Amino acid sequence: MFVLVMGASRGLGLEVVKAALAQGHSVRAFARGASGIKLTHDRLEKFPGDALALQDVRRALVGVDGVVQVLGVSNRDLFGPIDLFSRATAVLVPLMISQGVRRLVAVTGFGAGDSAPAIGPFQRLPFRMLFGRAYDDKTRQERLIVASGLDWTIWRPGVLINGSISGKAKILMAPAQWRNGVVSRGDVAANVVSHLTDVAMIGQKPVIIRF
């Protein structure tokens, strides 16, 4: 596939870029700091742009087969109003529809949407205090994706840590299985990319953890 990775300059987004290239895909790496990505490859295009800017997103979608949306906010932004996830998705989805790009993969997190009740009672209060604003907006993001009619998958990783691919990550599909845990960015990226063309994942919201 020719994949547009949004949020590609660091963290999990950069790991998705690396995994996609390693698995044979071509990548358009979209981020405000895309030109600073310290990675070169003949199947990599660095595309500076703002996920909230309609013209940037429209140009970035030209010619791609699918989108992996991996957005994040800094720790210092967690205690103020957060609407990046839903606003960026509200820009992206209509443009994908109008340009005929069907495949959308988004990475939100365990605790967003209907996975929130699976957070344990002892984790719930600190989780809400630290991440409540962000995850409320991730929930709004998920609602926009589910209502889009696109061929979507929403991945919900547990607590992200630095680390390479271990091959030991667990994909929890059924709500009864959902639980929190730790997982490396490398494992999440590898699984997100390996299921890009998996039609069985369309319309699914898997939780991914290692332990």
From TrEMBL:
<dbReference type="InterPro" id="IPR036291">
    <property type="entry name" value="NAD(P)-bd_dom_sf"/>
</dbReference>
<protein>
    <submittedName>
        <fullName>NAD(P)H-binding protein</fullName>
    </submittedName>
</protein>
<dbReference type="Pfam" id="PF13460">
    <property type="entry name" value="NAD_binding_10"/>
</dbReference>
<feature type="domain" description="NAD(P)-binding">
    <location>
        <begin position="7"/>
        <end position="198"/>
    </location>
</feature>
<dbReference type="InterPro" id="IPR016040">
    <property type="entry name" value="NAD(P)-bd_dom"/>
</dbReference>
